[in-house]
Design goal:
The chain contains 4 helices and 5 strands. The chain is of the alpha+beta class and 142 residues long. Strands 2-1-3-4-5 form a 5-stranded mixed beta sheet. The protein is globular and about 50 Å long. It binds tetrahydrodeoxyuridine.
Length: 142
């Protein structure tokens, strides 16, 4: 069983390290690898704007750099710096595509958190229907 609350707590903690001086929208992510390791990520913005990386992709890049290739779930905690009543944030389209690379869309969970006690889990397939992934490039599929 995935400890969703532990993952949400890790995402909220990672959010504290968000570098978001331009948007002031702080995002943290916690990615659970199949071996139980949790990789954290935060959004890291840039004066050039477009080099900005989202919290979710930060977590995936860190995990992949460690050699991880298999994941069960990611928690995302995103809201404005001074937001007292957070609505939470869904992963952007680019991050959903990034997830599609390493995760089984039928089982991978995306946990969108508003607080430590208020979060909802969605399936990757649900948030990225008919996603294009590595299997589509396999020769035997053609
Ligand atoms: N952002 C994330 O890190 N993840 C999301 O799910 C949504 C958006 C970041 C990118 C940028 O630094 C800021 O939030 C505003 O778009």
């Amino acid at each position: 069983m995935i400890d969703q609350k532990a993952l949400v707590k890790a995402a909220i903690a990672a959010r504290e390290n968000s570098y978001s001086p331009y948007s002031k929208f702080m995002v943290g992510a916690a990615l659970l690898a199949k071996n139980g390791t949790i990789y954290r990520g935060a959004n890291i913005e840039n004066a050039g704007y477009s080099p900005t990386i989202c919290a979710e992709r930060s977590a995936f890049v860190t995990a992949a750099t460690d050699g991880e290739r298999a994941f069960d779930a990611i928690a995302v905690a995103g809201w404005g710096k001074d937001d007292l009543d957070p609505a939470g944030a869904f992963p952007c389209g680019v991050c959903r595509q990034f997830m599609m690379e390493f995760c089984d869309p039928a089982t991978f969970l995306i946990i969108v958190a508003k607080s430590e006690d208020d979060y909802t889990a969605y399936g990757l397939e649900e948030l990225l229907p008919h996603g294009f992934g590595p299997l589509d490039l396999k020769e035997e599929k053609k």
